[in-house]
Amino acid sequence: MEYIFAFLHQHIDLIYIVILSIFLGVEVISRVPSVLHTPLMSGANAIHGVVIIGAIIVMGKAEPDNYVALIIGFLAVILGTINVVGGFVVTDRMLEMFKGKRK
Amino acid sequence: MGSSILSIIYLIGSVTFILGLKMLSKPDTARKGNLIAAGGMSLAIVGTIFLYRVNDAPLHNYGWIFSGLLIGGVIGVLSAKKVKMTAMPEMVSMFNGMGGACAALISIVEFNHIHALIRNLYAPVSDDHLVLQLLESSASRGTVLVILLSLVIGAVSCAGSIIAWGKLAGKVKDFSFKGQHLLNLGVLALLVGLSAWLLMIFAVSPGTGILVFYIIFLLALFYGVLFVLPIGGADMPVVISLLNSFTGVAAACGGFLYSNPVMLTGGILVGSAGTILTILMCKAMNRSLKNVLIGSFGGGGAVAAAGGKEQGSYKEISLSDAAVVMAYANKVIIVPGYGLAVAQAQHVCHELEKMLEEKGVEVKYAIHPVAGRMPGHMNVLLAEADVPYEKLLEMEDANAEFSTTDAVLILGANDVVNPAAKNDPASPIYGMPILEVENAKVVIVNKRSMKPGYAGIENDLFFQPKTSMLFGDAKKVLQDLLTAVKEV
What are the C-alpha distances in Å from B252 to residues A19, B55, B246, B269, B440? Predict the structure, then answer.
């Protein structure tokens, strides 16, 4: 139990960010018309691709002779990039279709 | 200097994610919002590569990093550009799975790193004091807890997303067996138990620790498969949305691991937004989130098969009759569903709508929030076919208009127009808001066969006197209907 409190204390500013982000996410999403649910899900999907930053850090600090870390990290970078790039491009393709024809 | 610039870059990145999500929620600004978030993401990635410092040393292995980015980028762009609009949900699910896998892989490397640290400490002197010091530093239990969370959530999300993708693409069949809930709960309990145990022992017996770690990883993958496997196709939207928020949380765990605010805001935003979206969808389909989590969908199928004996007779309508009915109507409302998506009939559908308008018929579309495979899926498909935005009615508006409608044309929708949701408390979908098409004068239903919809329940609507059936593939039927209307 103790280590959990210690951990929370050590990261208290991050905890604040978490709590505020939770409310922010709820606020933002509850006003979305159902028309945009699919693009929104796809856009959110691209945003959680931010995990790629973790993959880059893992890759970048691995010892050049630690092949296990290098290979796993390399895979992680590829998968994360597909998530980010594919996610944003697919969302853009969907939204492209909404554009224009309302005018 | 470099690290303070990086902090500002992360700040900008977080703000673009918030702005992006906010703009994505309005039709006018949605596309711009997506681009802004993408810009923030690129900035954060580039900033991390060049400015991130580990103990004051810059990152290395640039060759690996850039080739990974290049390969991933090319695959991402190609698959996103090539995918058909009807296969969009599969694609989103697949991308989501990759994000989850990424989080799990990061955890594996980080745990190995900690494992190596402990090993090194053990090798020269076996001194509890040193171990204690270690526990208070980089390898504190809190860090391992975060690594485990990220591993388990990421792996569940990855395996689950791949199964969801396979189901939507028709490669994986629904599969359930007796006692599946118990097995699911058992595996989940085992996961929690093993994780707690690992937290206790990883510092004292690293050898067992690393073994348990990989067992947890495999169990989490297994749980992901078990979790999605029994769930029917109609519930896939809920599952994908839920897995989407899972991956968000896994990404946020990475934020804790590296004290990285942009990973944290991005991940948590998606986690909370995805959860709310999931709950909204559950409400629309009258499912409880608890049922989703235990993985007990699809049970309705067995019940319905047993209860689906009492049926009246239905009547068919010929193409030419259907054409006449629609061409001489004042107002026609089209209800698109899953069938339209499968047949990729959105373009023909728009043709028919234009033809009817030329003949002076008012045509509108009624969009149920969960019609198709994902919420808003129908809107995307119809938008692809250039159907004007004003013609799409949301459920409440459509229900207000059915009583003044002469003909309703249902294209491969079933559960979303099933009156049982309103008047049969025993029905598994009782309470789900539906499109009240039976208020219109005539209802024409296009389906491939009399098979029940995804929820596996019979639809009384098809046996009502004002309903006529028009069997066949939606695209083919619409094409024929188009020719027939032309000739009227």
Answer: 12, 22, 10, 9, 50
Residue among B11, B16, B25 with most chain A CBs within 10 A, to mutate: B25
The pLDDT assigned to A27 comes to: 85
Gap between the Cα atoms of B361 and B351, Å rounded: 13
Provide the chain A residues 56-95 that lie in CB contact (below 8 A) with chain B.
56-62, 64, 68-70, 72-95
Q: How far apart are CA B432 and CA B425, in angstroms?
A: 11
Average pLDDT on A86-103 reads 77
When the pLDDT of each residue in chain A is averaged and rounded to a whole number, the result is 86
Q: DSSP readout, A23-78? A: HHHHHHHTT--GGGHHHHHHHHHHHGGGGHHHHHHHHHHS-TT-HHHHHHHHHHHH
Mean pLDDT of B18-34: 89
Using alpha carbons only, what angle is made at residue A66 by residues A65 and A68, rounded to the nearest 5 degrees? 140
Provide the annotated active-site residues of B: 415
Q: Is the pTM of this model over 0.90?
A: no
Cβ–Cβ under 8 Å, residues B44 and B10: yes
Instruction: Decide if B263 and A50 are in contact by the 8 Å CB cutoff.
Output: yes
B252 contacts in chain A (CB < 8 Å): 18
User: What distance in Å separates the CA atoms of residue B265 and residue B381, rounded to the nearest whole number?
Assistant: 32
In the block, residue with structure tokens 């004042």 = B330
Question: CB distance from A17 to chain B under 8 Å?
Answer: yes
Type of residue at B299? G
Task: List the beta bridge partners of residue B446.
Answer: B411, B470
pLDDT at B137 over 70: no
Bridge-based pairing of strands B53-54 and B57-58 is antiparallel
Q: Does B53 touch chain A (CB under 8 A)?
A: no
pLDDT on residue B131: 57
- Which run of H or of E encompasses B366? strand B362-367
User: Is residue B456 a contact partner of residue B300, using CB atoms and an 8 Å limit?
Assistant: yes
Q: Is A15 on the interface with B (CB under 8 A)?
A: no
pLDDT beyond 70 at B307: no
**DSSP type of residue B316:** B
| CA proximity to B247, closest of B266, B263, B267, B231 | B267
Identify the weakest region by mean pLDDT among A18-32, A69-83, B185-199.
Answer: A18-32
DSSP category for residue A84: I
Q: How far is CA B357 from CA B39, B148, B485, in A?
A: 42, 59, 11
Which helix (H) or strand (E) segment is B468 a member of?
A: strand B467-471
Given pLDDT bands bounded at 50, 70 and 90, which one contains residue A103? very low
Assign B305 a pLDDT band (cuts: 50, 70, 90).
very low
Is B302's pLDDT higher than 60? no
Tell me the pLDDT of chain B averaged across its residues.
85
The radius of gyration of chain B's CA atoms, rounded to the nearest angstrom, is: 27
Q: What is the mean pLDDT of residues B197-206?
A: 85
- Angle at the Cα of B76 (from B72 to B81), degrees rounded to 5? 155
Q: What backbone torsions phi and psi does residue B252 show, to the nearest 5 degrees?
A: -65, -35
